[in-house]
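Exercise 3.2. Students should predict the tertiary structure of the chain below and write it as C-alpha cells, then compare their answer with the key that follows.

Predict this chain's 3D structure.
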Amino acid sequence: MISFVLNALRTTRHNIKANKQVFLMSVATITIAFTIQGLFFLVFVNLNTLLSTWGKQVQLIVYLDDDISKGRMNSLEETFKSNKEVDSISYISRDEAWKGFKNTFYEKSGFVTDLDFNPLPASYNLKFRDGPERLNNIRELADSLKEYKGIESLEYGEKWISRFEKFMIILRVFILVVGAILCVGLILIISNTIKLSIYSRQDEIDLMLLLGATHRFIKTPLLLEGLVQGVIGVGLALGIVKLIHVYMRFQFQGSLESIFRGVDLQFLGQPLLWAMILVSIFIGWVGSLLSITQYLHSTDRK
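Answer key:
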C-alpha cells in the first residue's frame, strides 16, 4: 500500500512537471474564481455583522396620544413588564422630549426657536434582551400593540430592517448561484487540464493497460493532480482575500468605527474557510474523475 501511494505521488509530480504551463494556467483560473467567491463571502459576512450590530441597537419606541388616560398608561406599562423579552422601560414625557429636541437642533435651525407650542408626543422606549430572536420579539410586541387605544404610532425601523434583510436574502441567493456557476466552470477546466495530461501520456497509459494495470492504478495519480490544482488554487485565493481584508481594515476601520460603533471588519469564519477548501477538493476530484473515466471507457470499447 505504501509503495502504491509513493508511486502515485511520483507519477503525479512527473505529470505536473510535464504539463507545467497548463497546470499553472489551471491553478491561476481556480485562484481567480475562488478569489471572486471569497470576496463575495467577505462582503456578505460583514454586511451580516452590520445588520446584527444594528439589530442589537434597535429599540421599540411607543408614541402616545396626547389625550391618553392614566389608566391606559398603567395598562400599557403592565403589558410591557409582563413581556419577558423586554429588558428595560423608560418613559419620556412631552416636555422631556421637547427639551431634548431643542437641545439637539437649537443651533441648527431657527425654526425650532419660533415654535410656541410642543408638537412632540410622550413615549415609552423599550429595550429588549439580546438574543438571536431579538428582532422577531420586537416585531411581535409591536404587532400586538398596533390596535391598542391610546397609542399614536410605533417605531423601531421596521422598513429599513425589512429591506436590509431582503437584500441579504437576495445577496445570499446571488452568491450561491455565482458559486454554482464557478464550480461547474472549474470542473470543466480541471477536466480539460487532466485530459491534456492523459493525451501527453497516452502511449504510456495504453501500454500499462496492456500489461494488466488496474484502473485504480492509472486513475490515482491523475486524481491527485486534480486535487493538487484545487488545493493550491484555493490556498492562493484565500491568501489574496486575506490581504484585501487586511488592507481594508488598515484603510477604513477607523472611519467605520466612527460611523458604526462596535463594528469591526470581519474575515471569513472557519465554516466558510473549510467549505471553500472542501469544495475545491471536490472540484479537483470530480474534474479529474470525469476525464480519466471517459478515457478509460473509450479504451475499453476499442
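Discussion points: The longest helix spans residues 215-259. The longest strand covers residues 86-92.
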